[in-house]
Amino acid sequence: MKKILATTAVILAASTGIAAAQNWSAEIYGGASLQNTLKYGGISYDTDQGTTLGFGVYNTGWVQGLALGIDVMYTNVGYTVDIDSVDSTSLMLNARYAFPLGGAAEAYVGAGLGAINVHYDGASMFPAYTGSDVVAGGQVELGMRYRLAAGNLFGAVKYQAAFEDARIKAVTQEFHNTSVIVGYAFNF
């Protein structure tokens, strides 16, 4: 997780030096991770609804309608059978393509590839199994945004999945998540 945060800080610092070139946006969002079923140790368990938080930095100066950037997202869901939970922190290189809907509204689709730090928290029931593993993963996104004076108000559905199960202290933890998010992107 420290590597993900350090990489994000370097990319953000580099992008601020290039920001004078315009066509940049920085966004912040939050929402809900929907109820799900995840395998832990090969057995499927249901999860409750959880939380999603994130931010991103994008550049739209490449091709009309195309935005390229980085997306950092945190999710948390708890298993319904006890008090343990699964958190994730991801760093994705993301591409989005926007379709005008008329006026100040547009729809967009996005896809990204990167790394996901999957963390299993055994809480007080299984503390010996608490740990994390970083695995490769991807995401897809479908959203709508509305242009306001200094940016865009947006809402989206984002699906994220690890390409393989995380291995945490010799036990496998599956990870995939569907989130409904709302946020604001500041243009600069």
UniProtKB/TrEMBL annotation:
Matches recorded under SUPFAM superfamilies: OMPA-like
Claim: Signal is one of the keywords in the record: yes
Residue stretches making up the Outer membrane protein beta-barrel domain: 8-188
Secretion signal, residue range per the UniProt entry: 1-21
InterPro entries in UniProt: Beta-barrel_OMP (IPR027385), OMP/PagP_B-barrel (IPR011250)
A Pfam entry, by short name: OMP_b-brl
Swiss-Prot/TrEMBL keywords: Signal
Name the record gives this protein: Outer membrane protein beta-barrel domain-containing protein
Species of the source: Rhodobacter ferrooxidans
